[in-house]
UniProtKB/TrEMBL annotation:
Stretches assigned to the CYTH domain: 2-202
Gene Ontology MF term list: inorganic triphosphate phosphatase activity; metal ion binding
Pfam families for the chain: CHAD (PF05235), CYTH (PF01928)
This protein's name: CYTH domain-containing protein
Stretches assigned to the CHAD domain: 218-428
PANTHER family: INORGANIC TRIPHOSPHATASE
Protein backbone atom coordinates (compact mmCIF):
# COMPACT_ATOMS: atom_id res chain seq x y z
CA UNK A 1 0.00 0.00 0.00
CA UNK A 2 1.10 3.56 -0.70
CA UNK A 3 -0.32 6.98 0.19
CA UNK A 4 -1.13 9.12 -2.83
CA UNK A 5 -0.55 12.84 -2.27
CA UNK A 6 -1.59 15.10 -5.12
CA UNK A 7 -2.83 18.48 -6.27
CA UNK A 8 -5.13 18.84 -9.25
CA UNK A 9 -5.56 21.81 -11.62
CA UNK A 10 -8.17 22.51 -14.29
CA UNK A 11 -6.63 23.85 -17.52
CA UNK A 12 -8.31 25.86 -20.25
CA UNK A 13 -7.69 24.14 -23.63
CA UNK A 14 -6.26 27.37 -25.03
CA UNK A 15 -3.62 27.37 -22.26
CA UNK A 16 -2.25 23.86 -22.89
CA UNK A 17 0.67 24.70 -25.20
CA UNK A 18 1.92 27.58 -23.05
CA UNK A 19 1.66 25.33 -19.99
CA UNK A 20 3.81 22.67 -21.64
CA UNK A 21 6.49 25.28 -22.33
CA UNK A 22 6.34 26.46 -18.72
CA UNK A 23 6.71 22.95 -17.26
CA UNK A 24 9.52 22.05 -19.67
CA UNK A 25 11.53 24.90 -18.17
CA UNK A 26 11.41 23.40 -14.69
CA UNK A 27 14.16 21.05 -13.35
CA UNK A 28 12.85 18.01 -15.26
CA UNK A 29 14.49 14.64 -14.59
CA UNK A 30 12.52 12.63 -17.17
CA UNK A 31 9.54 12.89 -19.52
CA UNK A 32 7.14 10.35 -21.07
CA UNK A 33 3.85 10.21 -22.95
CA UNK A 34 1.26 7.54 -22.13
CA UNK A 35 -2.11 6.57 -23.54
CA UNK A 36 -4.26 5.46 -20.60
CA UNK A 37 -7.65 3.77 -20.54
CA UNK A 38 -9.37 3.27 -17.17
CA UNK A 39 -12.55 1.37 -16.35
CA UNK A 40 -14.18 1.94 -12.97
CA UNK A 41 -16.31 -0.66 -11.19
CA UNK A 42 -19.02 -0.70 -8.54
CA UNK A 43 -22.09 -2.68 -7.51
CA UNK A 44 -25.53 -1.82 -8.88
CA UNK A 45 -26.45 -0.11 -5.60
CA UNK A 46 -23.15 1.84 -5.38
CA UNK A 47 -21.67 0.01 -2.40
CA UNK A 48 -18.09 1.09 -3.10
CA UNK A 49 -19.05 4.69 -3.72
CA UNK A 50 -20.98 4.84 -0.44
CA UNK A 51 -17.83 3.79 1.39
CA UNK A 52 -15.67 6.24 -0.61
CA UNK A 53 -13.75 3.48 -2.35
CA UNK A 54 -12.63 3.60 -5.99
CA UNK A 55 -11.85 0.42 -7.96
CA UNK A 56 -10.45 0.56 -11.48
CA UNK A 57 -8.49 -1.35 -14.10
CA UNK A 58 -6.00 0.73 -16.07
CA UNK A 59 -4.66 -0.25 -19.46
CA UNK A 60 -1.44 1.16 -20.92
CA UNK A 61 0.11 -0.23 -24.11
CA UNK A 62 -1.00 -3.82 -23.43
CA UNK A 63 -0.13 -3.69 -19.73
CA UNK A 64 -2.88 -3.73 -17.10
CA UNK A 65 -3.10 -2.76 -13.44
CA UNK A 66 -5.89 -2.91 -10.87
CA UNK A 67 -6.08 -0.10 -8.32
CA UNK A 68 -8.14 0.24 -5.15
CA UNK A 69 -8.23 3.72 -3.60
CA UNK A 70 -9.75 4.84 -0.33
CA UNK A 71 -11.69 8.08 -0.11
CA UNK A 72 -8.84 9.54 1.95
CA UNK A 73 -8.88 13.15 3.01
CA UNK A 74 -8.30 16.64 1.73
CA UNK A 75 -6.02 18.68 3.96
CA UNK A 76 -5.65 22.26 2.87
CA UNK A 77 -6.70 21.32 -0.65
CA UNK A 78 -4.11 18.53 -0.98
CA UNK A 79 -5.60 15.05 -1.29
CA UNK A 80 -4.19 12.10 0.70
CA UNK A 81 -5.48 8.62 -0.25
CA UNK A 82 -4.43 5.05 0.50
CA UNK A 83 -3.78 3.22 -2.76
CA UNK A 84 -3.27 -0.49 -3.55
CA UNK A 85 -1.93 -1.43 -7.00
CA UNK A 86 -1.86 -4.97 -8.43
CA UNK A 87 -0.58 -5.92 -11.92
CA UNK A 88 -3.00 -7.95 -14.08
CA UNK A 89 -2.43 -10.27 -17.03
CA UNK A 90 -5.44 -8.84 -18.90
CA UNK A 91 -8.10 -6.18 -18.56
CA UNK A 92 -10.30 -8.60 -16.59
CA UNK A 93 -11.03 -7.53 -13.00
CA UNK A 94 -9.58 -9.92 -10.37
CA UNK A 95 -10.40 -8.59 -6.91
CA UNK A 96 -9.13 -11.77 -5.28
CA UNK A 97 -5.59 -10.47 -5.90
CA UNK A 98 -6.13 -7.54 -3.54
CA UNK A 99 -5.21 -8.07 0.13
CA UNK A 100 -8.16 -8.31 2.51
CA UNK A 101 -6.67 -5.40 4.48
CA UNK A 102 -7.18 -3.12 1.47
CA UNK A 103 -10.96 -3.14 1.93
CA UNK A 104 -12.94 -1.17 4.54
CA UNK A 105 -14.24 -3.31 7.39
CA UNK A 106 -17.82 -2.82 6.17
CA UNK A 107 -17.10 -4.46 2.79
CA UNK A 108 -16.56 -8.19 2.29
CA UNK A 109 -14.46 -8.82 -0.80
CA UNK A 110 -15.88 -12.34 -1.17
CA UNK A 111 -19.38 -10.91 -1.28
CA UNK A 112 -18.43 -8.70 -4.23
CA UNK A 113 -17.69 -11.61 -6.59
CA UNK A 114 -20.13 -11.37 -9.47
CA UNK A 115 -21.71 -8.17 -8.13
CA UNK A 116 -19.33 -5.66 -9.70
CA UNK A 117 -19.96 -4.06 -13.08
CA UNK A 118 -18.28 -1.43 -15.21
CA UNK A 119 -19.70 2.05 -14.57
CA UNK A 120 -17.66 4.40 -16.71
CA UNK A 121 -14.32 4.85 -18.45
CA UNK A 122 -11.73 7.61 -18.59
CA UNK A 123 -9.55 7.68 -21.70
CA UNK A 124 -6.76 10.23 -21.97
CA UNK A 125 -3.26 10.96 -23.14
CA UNK A 126 -0.86 11.74 -20.30
CA UNK A 127 2.27 13.79 -20.82
CA UNK A 128 4.27 13.35 -17.63
CA UNK A 129 7.39 15.04 -16.33
CA UNK A 130 9.34 13.94 -13.24
CA UNK A 131 10.44 17.19 -11.62
CA UNK A 132 12.93 17.86 -8.83
CA UNK A 133 11.72 20.45 -6.33
CA UNK A 134 13.45 21.10 -3.02
CA UNK A 135 13.97 17.72 -1.36
CA UNK A 136 11.31 15.99 -3.46
CA UNK A 137 10.48 14.29 -6.72
CA UNK A 138 7.09 15.25 -8.10
CA UNK A 139 5.29 13.88 -11.14
CA UNK A 140 3.62 16.61 -13.15
CA UNK A 141 1.04 15.07 -15.50
CA UNK A 142 -0.97 16.85 -18.19
CA UNK A 143 -4.06 14.75 -19.05
CA UNK A 144 -6.14 15.35 -22.19
CA UNK A 145 -9.12 13.14 -23.06
CA UNK A 146 -12.64 12.39 -21.83
CA UNK A 147 -14.83 10.73 -19.24
CA UNK A 148 -17.37 8.45 -20.92
CA UNK A 149 -20.62 6.83 -19.75
CA UNK A 150 -22.46 5.26 -22.67
CA UNK A 151 -23.12 8.11 -25.10
CA UNK A 152 -22.39 10.81 -22.51
CA UNK A 153 -19.02 12.57 -22.68
CA UNK A 154 -17.19 15.08 -20.50
CA UNK A 155 -13.77 16.48 -21.50
CA UNK A 156 -10.61 16.02 -19.44
CA UNK A 157 -8.09 18.85 -19.56
CA UNK A 158 -6.18 18.97 -16.31
CA UNK A 159 -2.77 18.99 -14.67
CA UNK A 160 -1.89 16.85 -11.68
CA UNK A 161 1.05 17.08 -9.32
CA UNK A 162 1.73 13.86 -7.42
CA UNK A 163 4.39 13.49 -4.75
CA UNK A 164 6.63 10.53 -5.62
CA UNK A 165 9.20 11.07 -2.88
CA UNK A 166 9.77 13.84 -0.37
CA UNK A 167 7.60 16.48 1.31
CA UNK A 168 4.12 17.89 0.76
CA UNK A 169 5.58 21.38 1.22
CA UNK A 170 7.57 20.93 -1.99
CA UNK A 171 4.39 20.08 -3.92
CA UNK A 172 2.97 23.45 -2.89
CA UNK A 173 6.24 25.20 -3.70
CA UNK A 174 6.15 23.72 -7.21
CA UNK A 175 2.48 24.60 -7.57
CA UNK A 176 3.30 28.25 -6.88
CA UNK A 177 5.27 28.25 -10.14
CA UNK A 178 1.89 27.94 -11.89
CA UNK A 179 0.75 31.28 -10.48
CA UNK A 180 2.19 33.06 -13.53
CA UNK A 181 0.27 30.81 -15.96
CA UNK A 182 -3.00 31.88 -17.52
CA UNK A 183 -5.99 29.57 -17.86
CA UNK A 184 -5.12 27.39 -14.83
CA UNK A 185 -7.13 27.01 -11.62
CA UNK A 186 -7.16 24.61 -8.69
CA UNK A 187 -9.52 21.66 -9.23
CA UNK A 188 -11.68 19.88 -6.70
CA UNK A 189 -13.15 16.83 -8.49
CA UNK A 190 -11.19 13.75 -9.52
CA UNK A 191 -11.82 12.03 -12.84
CA UNK A 192 -13.55 9.26 -10.90
CA UNK A 193 -15.86 11.72 -9.12
CA UNK A 194 -16.84 13.20 -12.47
CA UNK A 195 -17.48 9.72 -13.83
CA UNK A 196 -19.71 8.82 -10.91
CA UNK A 197 -21.74 11.98 -11.49
CA UNK A 198 -22.21 11.13 -15.16
CA UNK A 199 -23.16 7.55 -14.33
CA UNK A 200 -25.89 8.88 -12.03
CA UNK A 201 -27.40 10.81 -14.94
CA UNK A 202 -26.22 14.30 -14.07
CA UNK A 203 -22.99 16.23 -14.42
CA UNK A 204 -24.34 19.31 -12.61
CA UNK A 205 -22.70 20.48 -9.42
CA UNK A 206 -25.20 22.64 -7.57
CA UNK A 207 -24.21 25.52 -5.25
CA UNK A 208 -23.93 24.39 -1.66
CA UNK A 209 -24.51 26.51 1.47
CA UNK A 210 -22.51 26.13 4.66
CA UNK A 211 -23.12 23.28 7.05
CA UNK A 212 -21.92 22.73 10.61
CA UNK A 213 -18.23 22.10 11.15
CA UNK A 214 -18.07 18.81 13.08
CA UNK A 215 -14.97 18.06 15.17
CA UNK A 216 -13.81 15.25 17.49
CA UNK A 217 -14.90 15.77 21.09
CA UNK A 218 -11.36 16.35 22.37
CA UNK A 219 -10.17 18.65 19.57
CA UNK A 220 -7.88 21.49 20.61
CA UNK A 221 -8.45 25.10 19.61
CA UNK A 222 -5.64 24.86 17.06
CA UNK A 223 -7.08 21.67 15.59
CA UNK A 224 -10.44 23.37 15.35
CA UNK A 225 -8.86 26.40 13.70
CA UNK A 226 -7.10 24.22 11.11
CA UNK A 227 -10.34 22.34 10.45
CA UNK A 228 -12.20 25.64 10.02
CA UNK A 229 -9.72 26.81 7.39
CA UNK A 230 -10.01 23.50 5.52
CA UNK A 231 -13.82 23.71 5.78
CA UNK A 232 -13.81 27.20 4.27
CA UNK A 233 -11.42 26.20 1.47
CA UNK A 234 -13.55 23.15 0.62
CA UNK A 235 -16.59 25.46 0.42
CA UNK A 236 -14.62 27.76 -1.87
CA UNK A 237 -13.54 24.90 -4.13
CA UNK A 238 -16.94 23.25 -4.47
CA UNK A 239 -18.82 26.44 -5.19
CA UNK A 240 -16.20 27.68 -7.62
CA UNK A 241 -16.82 24.50 -9.63
CA UNK A 242 -20.56 25.16 -9.49
CA UNK A 243 -19.98 28.74 -10.61
CA UNK A 244 -18.18 27.48 -13.73
CA UNK A 245 -21.18 25.26 -14.47
CA UNK A 246 -23.35 28.35 -14.86
CA UNK A 247 -24.88 28.74 -11.39
CA UNK A 248 -24.49 32.47 -10.86
CA UNK A 249 -25.51 32.31 -7.17
CA UNK A 250 -22.47 30.10 -6.51
CA UNK A 251 -20.35 33.26 -6.83
CA UNK A 252 -21.74 34.54 -3.53
CA UNK A 253 -20.94 31.22 -1.85
CA UNK A 254 -17.34 31.67 -3.03
CA UNK A 255 -17.38 35.15 -1.51
CA UNK A 256 -18.78 33.74 1.73
CA UNK A 257 -15.93 31.23 1.84
CA UNK A 258 -13.49 34.16 1.88
CA UNK A 259 -15.51 35.73 4.70
CA UNK A 260 -15.31 32.41 6.55
CA UNK A 261 -11.51 32.31 6.31
CA UNK A 262 -11.23 35.81 7.71
CA UNK A 263 -13.80 35.06 10.40
CA UNK A 264 -11.94 31.92 11.49
CA UNK A 265 -8.77 33.99 11.84
CA UNK A 266 -10.66 36.69 13.76
CA UNK A 267 -12.06 34.15 16.24
CA UNK A 268 -8.54 33.14 17.33
CA UNK A 269 -7.33 36.75 17.35
CA UNK A 270 -6.60 36.52 21.07
CA UNK A 271 -4.13 33.70 20.46
CA UNK A 272 -2.60 34.41 17.03
CA UNK A 273 -1.30 37.97 16.52
CA UNK A 274 -2.88 39.86 13.64
CA UNK A 275 0.51 40.43 12.02
CA UNK A 276 0.70 36.66 11.36
CA UNK A 277 -2.09 36.96 8.81
CA UNK A 278 -2.28 40.65 7.85
CA UNK A 279 -1.06 40.29 4.25
CA UNK A 280 -3.25 37.24 3.64
CA UNK A 281 -6.34 38.92 5.10
CA UNK A 282 -5.84 42.02 2.98
CA UNK A 283 -5.76 39.97 -0.22
CA UNK A 284 -8.79 37.92 0.83
CA UNK A 285 -10.73 41.10 1.59
CA UNK A 286 -9.83 42.62 -1.78
CA UNK A 287 -11.14 39.55 -3.61
CA UNK A 288 -14.21 39.44 -1.37
CA UNK A 289 -15.05 43.04 -2.26
CA UNK A 290 -14.59 42.32 -5.95
CA UNK A 291 -17.02 39.41 -5.69
CA UNK A 292 -19.71 41.69 -4.29
CA UNK A 293 -20.46 42.59 -7.92
CA UNK A 294 -21.54 40.04 -10.55
CA UNK A 295 -18.73 38.53 -12.67
CA UNK A 296 -18.24 35.65 -15.06
CA UNK A 297 -16.39 32.80 -13.34
CA UNK A 298 -13.54 32.73 -15.84
CA UNK A 299 -12.90 36.47 -15.55
CA UNK A 300 -12.17 36.06 -11.85
CA UNK A 301 -10.81 32.54 -11.40
CA UNK A 302 -8.39 32.74 -14.30
CA UNK A 303 -7.46 36.30 -13.43
CA UNK A 304 -4.18 37.66 -12.12
CA UNK A 305 -3.42 36.75 -8.53
CA UNK A 306 -6.41 34.43 -7.97
CA UNK A 307 -4.54 31.11 -8.06
CA UNK A 308 -1.60 32.64 -6.18
CA UNK A 309 -3.93 33.70 -3.36
CA UNK A 310 -5.47 30.26 -3.03
CA UNK A 311 -2.04 28.61 -2.97
CA UNK A 312 -0.84 31.16 -0.41
CA UNK A 313 -3.77 30.25 1.83
CA UNK A 314 -3.03 26.54 1.43
CA UNK A 315 0.63 27.10 2.27
CA UNK A 316 -0.32 29.20 5.31
CA UNK A 317 -2.64 26.40 6.48
CA UNK A 318 -0.41 23.39 5.85
CA UNK A 319 2.74 25.12 7.06
CA UNK A 320 0.93 26.58 10.11
CA UNK A 321 2.71 29.87 9.38
CA UNK A 322 1.13 31.52 12.42
CA UNK A 323 3.38 29.48 14.70
CA UNK A 324 6.33 31.77 13.99
CA UNK A 325 4.38 34.60 15.67
CA UNK A 326 3.04 32.96 18.87
CA UNK A 327 4.61 32.76 22.32
CA UNK A 328 4.32 30.16 25.08
CA UNK A 329 1.13 31.71 26.47
CA UNK A 330 -0.52 31.69 23.04
CA UNK A 331 0.48 28.08 22.49
CA UNK A 332 -1.08 27.07 25.79
CA UNK A 333 -4.36 28.69 24.73
CA UNK A 334 -4.23 26.99 21.33
CA UNK A 335 -3.78 23.64 23.08
CA UNK A 336 -6.94 24.21 25.12
CA UNK A 337 -10.35 22.63 24.48
CA UNK A 338 -12.04 23.78 21.26
CA UNK A 339 -15.41 22.92 22.77
CA UNK A 340 -14.90 25.30 25.71
CA UNK A 341 -13.51 27.94 23.38
CA UNK A 342 -16.52 27.54 21.05
CA UNK A 343 -18.98 27.96 23.93
CA UNK A 344 -17.31 31.20 25.02
CA UNK A 345 -17.20 32.55 21.46
CA UNK A 346 -20.84 31.60 20.80
CA UNK A 347 -21.85 33.69 23.80
CA UNK A 348 -19.79 36.62 22.51
CA UNK A 349 -21.32 36.32 19.04
CA UNK A 350 -24.80 36.31 20.53
CA UNK A 351 -23.98 39.36 22.64
CA UNK A 352 -22.69 41.20 19.56
CA UNK A 353 -25.86 40.43 17.63
CA UNK A 354 -28.05 41.54 20.54
CA UNK A 355 -26.19 44.85 20.67
CA UNK A 356 -26.39 45.36 16.89
CA UNK A 357 -30.08 44.47 16.54
CA UNK A 358 -31.52 45.44 19.92
CA UNK A 359 -33.84 48.05 18.39
CA UNK A 360 -35.76 48.53 15.12
CA UNK A 361 -33.49 49.71 12.29
CA UNK A 362 -33.91 52.00 9.34
CA UNK A 363 -33.06 50.46 5.93
CA UNK A 364 -29.70 52.26 5.95
CA UNK A 365 -28.88 51.09 9.49
CA UNK A 366 -29.82 47.55 8.55
CA UNK A 367 -27.59 47.73 5.46
CA UNK A 368 -24.66 48.94 7.59
CA UNK A 369 -25.06 46.02 10.02
CA UNK A 370 -25.58 43.33 7.40
CA UNK A 371 -21.86 42.46 6.94
CA UNK A 372 -21.51 41.99 10.70
CA UNK A 373 -24.59 39.77 10.71
CA UNK A 374 -23.11 37.64 7.95
CA UNK A 375 -19.85 37.19 9.87
CA UNK A 376 -21.74 36.14 13.00
CA UNK A 377 -23.87 33.63 11.08
CA UNK A 378 -20.72 32.09 9.63
CA UNK A 379 -19.16 32.05 13.11
CA UNK A 380 -22.17 30.07 14.38
CA UNK A 381 -21.65 27.49 11.61
CA UNK A 382 -17.98 27.26 12.60
CA UNK A 383 -18.53 26.97 16.33
CA UNK A 384 -21.74 24.95 16.78
CA UNK A 385 -20.72 21.47 15.64
CA UNK A 386 -21.16 20.03 19.13
CA UNK A 387 -24.88 20.92 19.02
CA UNK A 388 -26.16 19.59 15.67
CA UNK A 389 -29.77 19.18 16.79
CA UNK A 390 -30.18 22.70 18.16
CA UNK A 391 -27.86 24.85 16.06
CA UNK A 392 -29.51 24.78 12.63
CA UNK A 393 -32.81 26.29 13.74
CA UNK A 394 -31.06 28.99 15.73
CA UNK A 395 -28.84 29.96 12.79
CA UNK A 396 -31.74 29.83 10.34
CA UNK A 397 -33.60 32.47 12.35
CA UNK A 398 -30.70 34.90 11.93
CA UNK A 399 -30.36 33.89 8.27
CA UNK A 400 -33.97 34.94 7.64
CA UNK A 401 -33.10 38.38 8.99
CA UNK A 402 -30.02 38.52 6.77
CA UNK A 403 -31.98 37.49 3.67
CA UNK A 404 -34.34 40.38 4.25
CA UNK A 405 -37.46 38.75 2.78
CA UNK A 406 -40.86 39.14 4.43
CA UNK A 407 -41.40 40.97 7.71
CA UNK A 408 -37.90 42.03 8.75
CA UNK A 409 -39.04 43.32 12.13
CA UNK A 410 -40.70 39.98 12.94
CA UNK A 411 -37.52 38.16 11.93
CA UNK A 412 -35.43 40.46 14.16
CA UNK A 413 -37.63 39.90 17.20
CA UNK A 414 -37.80 36.14 16.66
CA UNK A 415 -34.02 35.84 16.30
CA UNK A 416 -33.35 37.93 19.41
CA UNK A 417 -35.83 35.92 21.51
CA UNK A 418 -34.02 32.62 20.98
CA UNK A 419 -32.27 31.16 24.03
CA UNK A 420 -28.67 30.04 23.66
CA UNK A 421 -28.27 26.34 22.94
CA UNK A 422 -24.64 26.09 24.08
CA UNK A 423 -23.07 25.86 27.53
CA UNK A 424 -22.16 29.12 29.25
CA UNK A 425 -18.90 29.65 31.08
CA UNK A 426 -20.35 28.16 34.27
CA UNK A 427 -21.51 24.99 32.47
CA UNK A 428 -25.19 25.98 32.11
CA UNK A 429 -27.14 26.30 28.86
Amino acid sequence: MSIEVELKFIVEPTAVEALKVLVAGWPVQSRETLRLSNTYYDTADGLLRRHRVGLRVRGNDGRFEMTLKSGGSHVGGVSHRAEHNVPLKSERLEIGLLPESAWPEEISASGLEGALGALFTTDFTREAWLVNEGESQIEVALDLGEVRVGEQREPICELEMELKAGRVEDVLALAKRLASATGVRLGSLSKAARGYRLSQGSSELMPEPFGLLALPARATVEQGFCAALEWALAHWQRNEASWFEGHANAQQEVRRALVAVRQAIALVGGMIPRKASSALRERLLALEERLSARHAAGDVCYGEGYLALKLELMDWMLGQRWRAFIDERDEKKLNGSFKRFADVMLSRCRAELKEAFCAPLTPDEYKDRKPRLERMIIAFWLLSGAYPDAAAGYIDAWQLLYDGAGDREAHRLRALAQPGFWLSGDGRA
